[in-house]
Amino acid sequence: MTGILALVVRILSNPYSNVVQKKLSLRGFKPLWISFFSYFLLSIFVIFPAFFVDWSAFEPVFWKYVIISGLIGALGNWFLTEAIKYGELSVLGPINSYKSVVSIVFAFFILHEIPSLVGLFGIFLIVLGSYFVFDSVSGGFSFKIFLRKDIRYRIFALILTALEAVFIKKIIVMSDVLVSFILWCVSSAIFSFVLMLFAKNKIKQEFYLSIKRYPLYFLLLSFSMFLMQFSTNIVFEHINVSYALALFQLSSLVSVVLGWKYFKEKNILKKLFGAFIMVFGAAVVILF
């Protein structure tokens, strides 16, 4: 029951956080700042529970996974926010279906998780459904669509976050859901800050605007990211990473609807049709 509830929360919270990220981008905030400040706020909230963890109990290899996960996650969220800034949620959401395919490869080599033939068929349906979503954009489906800036950024993001998911599962196995969440917040904040320094963002100016004009937006984003990642960790605790990422594609339906509602995106029926095929593929994964 806990796993099912966590799955529902994950499906709803992820696309909503994308909506808030896009709104902040449209108000002039740099994607890296949006990522960093959200992680920074989450890091503040996890300070109290962090005092109740015996951090000395973990082996060096555990911290290696934490560092790798933090760096990959920070890069992945940066590319994701860049993609959301330039693209449509109703297209970018379903593209994430490819993450389940990428995760199978990573999970096989790192976690030794082997998907069944039925599971692979379900993932194939998810990818097939994404074809109809691509075909809804101007000019129809073409491999040239993968050259678009928003699509390229989204693909970079899904590869990185699929790899991050595997390491998060590894961290959960070696600790627990709460510890992995605390480390996700802090390590992502640190590496996002480092990336922001290299990008030479105007930190003082963006901090002032965030606190003065849009504190509610950033609090909403941080809360939705909390719901998204904590529920993600709970789901990872119960099932294989590749299957979990496939089930998360149910959020593509929500992304299509939110893209239409908040940003007036077009060709919603065709996108919904493609997304429904993906939902069926997810159902095959979970039921069989």
The strand count comes to 0
- Element order: H for helix, E for strand: HHHHHHHHHHHHHH
Which structural class fits the helix and strand makeup?
A: mainly alpha
Low-pLDDT parts are none
Distance between the termini: 18 Å
- Please report which band the strand proportion falls in: under 5%, 5-15%, 15-25%, 25-35%, 35-45% or over 45%: under 5%
**Average pLDDT, all residues:** 84
* Rg, Cα atoms, Å: 18 Å
What gross morphology would you assign? globular
Task: Give the helix level as a range of percent.
Answer: over 70%
Separate helix tally:
14
Which sheet architecture does the biggest sheet show?
Answer: none
Index terms:
288 residues; mainly alpha; 0% strand; globular
How would you summarize what this structure contains?
The protein is mostly helical. The chain has 14 helices and no strands. The relative contact order is 0.22.
Written description of the protein model:
The protein has 14 helices and no strands. Helix 4 packs across helix 9, helix 6 runs parallel beside helix 8 and helix 9 crosses helix 11.
